[in-house]
Design a protein that fits this description.
This protein is of the alpha/beta class and 292 residues long. The chain has 2 domains: 33 residues, no CATH class; 231 residues, 2-enoyl-CoA Hydratase, Chain A, domain 1. The chain is built from 10 helices and 9 strands. The strands form 2 sheets. Strands 3-4-5-6-7-8-9 form a 7-stranded mixed beta sheet, with helices on both faces. It has a two-stranded antiparallel ribbon with strand order 1-2. Helix 5 packs parallel to helix 6. The longest helix has 26 residues. Its EC number is 2.1.3.15. InterPro entries: AcCoA_carboxyl_beta, Acetyl_CoA_COase_Trfase_b_su, ClpP/crotonase-like_dom_sf, COA_CT_N, Znf-ACC. Its cofactor is Zn(2+).
């Protein structure tokens, strides 16, 4: 047999299956960790609260996922669900981008506010969502958070805010920046009335949000690896012409330097919040008994 004939015969036993016979893997069934690169089933990742089982990396959660993982039965009585931003500056393409963000996320803006319970304790909650326009602080975000603060004061409920943001929303200019002062003023009044405010910082939280309500909590906790600060690392390094320390602006770095009270793993977050609410309720009961 000629060598040529031999290889021709071998080919028919080594044919590659056609595209029609290949097994198709449904899109989204697997997820790759953006930190360590480990590939895992998306369902398993979801069961693990979107924390990588290999390296512990905390993937971003949208507002509704956060609510599901935090509130009892994932149930929330939502405030101001139909509030939407306008286009005060007639900023080019802003309306189209907002519309697209609404369609892709199912949200009306970058925060969901309302009330629910955690471990049976009633709370007013505001949850920011980075997937809506980078979690930017615009007029609607500031207004909804301010109204939530005022409702917490009126009902005498503890206030809980989950922050994540790229900063102020440029397309709304001064109307965006003024939300820093508005939310801070509302929190000041809330504090004067003896309200409890728990701030939970998630990755990333920068700019106007970090410079206002995110850092004004009576108790400030953060998820592992969450980066937060005013300006980003690159901007600071280019400004001061120096290399910043390893881990700069991470939750662990900030905890070490006294910028927050504790770093709390996502799987322990509900238990931690329940404990904090329980301690607050016990304290209020003792004070009432003493005065009575």
């Amino acid at each position: 047999m000629a060598i040529k004939d031999f290889f021709q015969k071998k080919r028919k036993y080594a044919t590659i299956p056609s595209e029609q016979t290949k097994r198709e893997i449904p899109e989204g069934i697997m997820s790759k960790c953006s930190s360590c690169g480990t590939i895992q089933y998306s369902k398993e990742l979801g069961k693990n609260l979107k924390v990588c089982a290999s390296c512990g990396y905390h993937n971003k959660l949208n507002a509704m996922e956060r609510i599901e993982y935090t509130l009892d039965d994932g149930r929330i009585f939502e405030y101001d669900p139909d509030m939407v931003s306008e286009d005060p500056l007639e900023f080019p393409d802003y309306v189209n981008k907002l519309t697209k963000a609404m369609e892709t996320t199912g949200l009306r803006d970058a925060v969901v506010t309302g009330e629910g319970t955690i471990g049976g304790f009633p709370v007013v909650i505001a949850v920011m969502s980075f997937d809506f326009y980078g979690g930017t602080l615009g007029s609607v975000v500031g207004e909804k958070i301010t109204r939530a603060i005022e409702t917490a004061a009126q009902k005498k409920y503890p206030l809980l805010i989950f922050s994540t943001s790229g900063g102020a929303r440029t397309q709304e200019s001064i109307l965006s920046l003024m939300q820093m002062a508005k939310t801070s003023a509302a929190l000041s009044k809330f504090d004067e009335q003896g309200g409890l405010y728990i701030s939970v910082i998630t990755d990333p939280t920068f700019g106007g949000v970090s410079a206002s309500f995110a850092m004004l909590g009576d108790i400030i906790i953060a998820e592992p690896g969450a980066r937060f600060g005013f300006a980003g690392r690159i901007v600071i390094e280019e400004t001061i012409r120096q290399k910043l320390p390893e881990g700069f602006q991470t939750a662990e770095f900030n905890e070490k330097h006294g910028q927050l009270d504790q770093v709390v793993h996502r799987k322990d977050m509900r238990a931690m919040l329940t404990k904090l609410l329980e301690l607050h309720t016990v304290k209020a009961t003792k004070e009432a008994s003493a005065n009575g």
